[in-house]
Specification:
Shape: globular
Order of helices and strands: EHEHHEEHEEEEHH
Strand content: 25-35%
Number of helices: 6
Helix content: 25-40%
Structural class: alpha+beta
CATH architecture: Alpha-Beta Complex
Oligomer: single chain
Number of domains: 1
Largest sheet: 8 strands, mixed
Bound molecules: inosinic acid
Number of strands: 8
CATH topology: Maf protein
């Protein structure tokens, strides 16, 4: 079976990815499982550029099909910020409770209709022969008025999803995975890869 590397150190992401791609003829390996240790600097200005850069550099070193993702939160009132800088916003090591409190403060007097936001995930797949694909998934929501919920990570406690009447930090992992930006991008990527395999048969 063909092996594929998913370029992340995050065990939660790998588990989700293995589950979604389980019916493709692929053995999904984490960087650790593939024995690869390298950091790729995410210096692109788009999610696509960062995901493609990460996947391309690791595909070059490993000689294997490689997927990578880049994701972030876009807030309409802040002209799309923090966007591709979501992880580095206010400093890489700043606790999220501080980042989230700061955002709530910036949006203190902003009415509901102007609090729109979305999580974006872009997955890139790069084959050793240079073929490249990207797939984008989003989930629309708004910035809550207070921090709520204990699940998830990052900006989840301030990201309110109207259909659920909750923040994504109040959803169970299963509920979040069913609607998340990452799951949607992965599903799109799965269709692209399936077409690729059908073409080769
Ligand atoms: P990266 O894709 O690992 O570079 O991380 C992007 C950053 O975006 C994360 O560190 C979080 O701050 C934020 N982010 C991306 N997806 C989510 C999510 O599902 N919930 C909360 N924050 C997220």
């Amino acid at each position: 079976m063909q092996q594929m590397i998913f370029a992340t150190k995050n065990k939660g992401k790998i588990k989700e990815i293995k589950a979604i791609l389980s019916d493709l003829p692929l053995e999904v390996l984490s960087m650790e499982e593939a024995g690869i240790e390298m950091d790729v600097v995410e210096d692109g200005t788009t999610f696509e550029a960062n995901a493609l850069k990460k996947a391309s550099e690791i595909a070059k070193v490993s000689g294997k099909l490689t997927m990578a993702d880049d994701s972030g939160l876009e807030i309409d009132f802040l002209d799309g910020k923090p966007g591709v800088y979501s992880a580095r916003y206010l400093g890489e090591d700043t606790p999220y409770v501080e980042k989230n409190t700061h955002i709530l403060h910036l949006l203190k007097d902003v009415p509901k209709e102007k609090r729109g936001a979305r999580f974006v995930s872009v997955i890139a797949a790069v084959f050793p022969d240079g073929r490249k694909y990207t797939a984008r998934g989003t989930i629309e929501g708004s910035i809550a008025y207070e921090i709520k919920g204990e699940n998830g990570f990052g900006y989840d406690p301030i990201f309110f999803v109207a259909e659920k009447g909750k923040t994504t930090a109040e959803l169970s992992p299963q509920e979040k995975n069913a609607i998340s930006h990452r799951a949607k991008a992965l599903q799109k990527m799965k269709v692209l890869l399936q077409k690729e395999w059908e073409g080769q048969m």
